[in-house]
What does this fold into?
Amino acid sequence: MSVARLTLLVASLPALAGCSEIQSALAPRGPDAERILTLGLVLLVGAIAILLIVLVALVLALYGSDRWRRRLASANAVKLGGLAFPIVTLTILLGYGIWLMREELAAAVRPPALRIEVTGEQWWWRLAYLQPDGSRIAEANEIRIPVGQEVEFALNAADVIHSFWVPSLGGKLDMVPGRTNRLRLTAQREGIYRGQCAEYCGGPHALMALEIVAMPAEAFERWLAAAASPPEPVTEAARAGRDLFHRSGCGACHAIRGTEARGAVGPDLSRLGGRRFLAAASLRLDEDSIGRFIHDGQSLKPGNQMPEFRIFSATELRMLSAYLASLK
Ligand code: HEC
Ligand SMILES: [Cu+2]
It folds into this structure.
């Protein structure tokens, strides 16, 4: 890499950090992410201090006076620097780490305000909001949570190992087939926090992202309660789209609450129109992109598990999109 290029790269780093606030461990928006950042900074400063000490010792050993060189070569220097120092430093660090984690350990026993089950699928996120009465509300890809409340995520995987990571809110936790890992997160402010599957899971792994939308508690409750009464399509196009959806076999893989579509292979579409993105946060959602995904999904998200449907005319695609976008 040329010097000019390197300079350009280094100069653009602050700008890059600025635009990634929505997905950055350096911009914590919850207590868990804050603790991780604190620990990271303590480790960084400590590592820099130790590196400086080692460099000074190296310079003294190479170019220092005979007295310094003898001191550094003595058995005492090895015992102190090579044995006592690491044992003391690592013990202090371990104690500090455990002290820092005391909140997490305490949280594991108190009931969370809300439980959400997240299952990693190749290459999207299956969601279920667990209700106090034991029922489950299915969703996909976009997670809504009440701001300021502790949410427990029960993390599973359906096929291969995935990893759940929303850096602004907390640490990363793997999703392993056959076991449930639990993660608590609290968003301190309203906002949108982006995450990414953090374990390579094949094919379009890089296009397996998600968003957590933290909203005021009452608005969240209203949104969740509205799941019980799915909207009926009102426009002519949306009604035609609904009939086409059910005629075309989409319901074999997708579910829409309150309709005959009960498939569980692909994402639940009951409230697709209310999401900001399609296909695991890889495509901005609007009527146009829904149609494009149905027709050209394999070029937009290469390798994804939904077959392309090339059978529809432009008008039919518009009807399907109008219907799906009306589901909120
Ligand atoms: C063989 C199963 C299958 C069939 C049949 C199928 N889909 Fe899909 N669909 C999927 C899968 C799997 C995904 C997830 C793709 C991804 O993001 O990786 C998906 C994703 C989608 C999405 C984006 C959902 C989201 O949460 O972002 C839309 C919209 C969609 N399908 C519409 C349709 C329509 C309309 C039909 C019928 C014409 C249809 N699908 C038929 C499996 C299927
Ligand atoms: Cu993945």
